[in-house]
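Progress note, project year one: complex with flavin-adenine dinucleotide.
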Amino acid sequence: MPDIFDLIIIGAGPAGITAAVYAARKRLKLIILTGDIGGQAAWSGEIENYTGFNIISGPELAVKFDEHIKQFKLPIKESEEAISLTSDNGIFTVTTPKGKYSASSVIIASGKRSRELNVPGEKEFKNKGLTYCATCDGPLFAGKEVAVIGGGNSALDAAIQLARYCSKVYIVNNTENLGGDEVMRDQVIKNPVVSVINGAKVMSILGEKAVSAVRVESALAGLSEIPVNGVFVEIGLLPNSEFASLVKRNGSGEILVDTGCATSIPGIFAAGDVTNVAEKQIIIAAGEGAKASLAVFKYLVTNGKL
Ligand SMILES: Cc1cc2nc3c(=O)[nH]c(=O)nc-3n(C[C@H](O)[C@H](O)[C@H](O)COP(=O)(O)OP(=O)(O)OC[C@H]3O[C@@H](n4cnc5c(N)ncnc54)[C@H](O)[C@@H]3O)c2cc1C
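Model obtained:
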């Protein structure tokens, strides 16, 4: 008979890690199934809005999360992502490519992933000049010319990071004006290394063995090619909720939760960016993770499962 855990936490970004800290302190028997530790928080260049740290880089914060969670010596299965979640008589089973895990409760904290462009050349040149993470891959393009696709905060953050070591950064934005926060827009517009191309749609990524150009189309200039060695796709995010069809989700695929992180199925809770919670931020995801764990504890006690 396999172990039945009190709790399975899916994901180890800010929401999942914080949920795990709270659950460990309640002495719950839990397991964490995740792709990585840190989640999107590790992709950020500089974080200035996580209380307690005046400024910290995303990768450094991810290391802090890792150190914090490892002190509890919990079972953490990294590179083991949920592919399905089923329910049978109040016991939930999460299946991954490597196994099956059962528990009396689940916290889904699987966050979001980058949206793809879906243009010719994207798949062929993935990791051959085309990437979705400026923090992770930007330094590989030092001294080179690159294009950032997108016009929101993620694109602005990427462009600001890349301008530190790339010789030229083009922002290719398909709307008339850049979006994102004013403070970030100002930094981008004042940066002599960055050129903003508004109203341009990416048609394809060109190259032989690696990226050599981006083909764009705009109402003003028609079709044109921008010669670059790197392409950073920053056009938004999609919730990692496909495996969670058991619970109700909104039209964007976000899991619907109440103010206590409860989903439509009693015993399944969700926290952070994968949910419909207003605003997607590290501190908010962490707070939601804490709330989800406290709600799980209450659920287990109330239902005589502890
Ligand atoms: C470029 C960028 C910069 C940002 N900068 C800031 C900033 O400066 N300040 C700020 O507050 N916020 C920032 N954010 C937003 C912030 O990073 C997110 O709001 C936060 O990380 C969400 O946390 P989360 O735990 O809900 O999800 P995520 O961070 O997305 O973590 C999800 C976790 O789930 C795992 N996972 C995914 N699918 C599965 C699965 N099927 N099974 C198991 N595990 C899975 C992943 O491996 C990961 O560990 C930024 C985001 C981006 C993209």
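The longest helix spans residues 282-302.
Residues 21 and 246 are 26 Å apart (CA to CA).
No further modelling is planned for this target in the current period.
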